[in-house]
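I am writing to request your help with a piece of structural work I have in hand. A protein sequence and the structure tokens that stand for its backbone fold form the material at issue. Please examine both parts with care and let me know of anything in them that strikes you as inconsistent. The record follows directly beneath this note.
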Amino acid sequence: MSNYVDIIKSPMLTEASLKLVEKENKYTFKVNRDAHKDEITKAIESLFNVTVESINTANYVKKPTRRGNYTGFKPAYKKAVVKLAKGQKIAAFNV
């Protein structure tokens, strides 16, 4: 990956991810499907000026959906759950 902005697509702001922020200081992001853990770690550390302790990633495959007569797919994506060092926060998750 050439650019850190291309690696991190968006933060995931769901109820479950916000509970992880409060309880365990873990932040959830949608990331580029080709990105590796070390690339994601460097991107988060440089974009948000924080220290990453650990990172877990999960690949989600596309799922078929149907609305009436129309069929299609939910897009595939990669999710990264990042644990930060104690006392550090990311402002994007303060809703």
About this structure: The first strand starts at residue 8 and ends at 11. The chain has a mean pLDDT of 93. The chain has one domain: 4-86. Helices lie at 4-7, 15-24, 37-48.
